[in-house]
TrEMBL record:
<dbReference type="Pfam" id="PF13481">
    <property type="entry name" value="AAA_25"/>
</dbReference>
<dbReference type="InterPro" id="IPR027417">
    <property type="entry name" value="P-loop_NTPase"/>
</dbReference>
<protein>
    <submittedName>
        <fullName>Uncharacterized protein</fullName>
    </submittedName>
</protein>
<keyword id="KW-0614">Plasmid</keyword>
Amino acid sequence: MQVVRADEVESVASDWHMPGWLPESELVILGGDGGAGKTQIAMD
């Protein structure tokens, strides 16, 4: 395993499924109160 400092990592532009909210091909954690619509978004 190689350890790299975060300030040495070059950032790359993301493609967006929902611009500014939901990036494509990235790990996304969807959290919120019950009834907020998390399942609806996840199933869409």
